[in-house]
Specification:
Helix content is 14%, strand content 27%. It contains 2 helices and 7 strands. The chain has helices spanning 24-30, 65-70; strands at 5-9, 15-18, 49-53, 56-57, 73-74, 80-81, 85-88. The chain has a single domain (5-88), classed as Beta-grasp domain (Ubiquitin-like (UB roll), Roll). By secondary structure, the protein is α+β, with helices and mostly antiparallel strands. The N and C termini lie far apart (25 Å). It binds FE2/S2 (inorganic) cluster (FES). FE2/S2 (inorganic) cluster (FES) is lined by residues 37-40, 42-47, 60, 62, 75, 77.
Amino acid sequence: MEGEFTVKLARSGRLLPVGREESVLDVLRDAGVDVASSCGQGVCGTCVTRVLQGEPEHWDTYLTPDEHAANDRFCPCISRSRSAVLVLDL
Ligand code: FES
């Protein structure tokens, strides 16, 4: 469904659906995965997480345009996914 995607945790293989109204960070926390965060608005970079597969939809203002284009990191507090599955180094 539009706006929804799945996050896959590379280390455990867990699949976590992300609904339209929730952030990746919220979904990770609800699943007991602790990712440090601060601003929650894509500004500070505290939550930056490595992306192993998939294409993030970047909404943060912390990473540079080149870093966005590399698609190997993203800010789960605000950014989403263009691909159906986003595999994270978690
Ligand atoms: S918590 Fe600040 S960029 Fe995500």
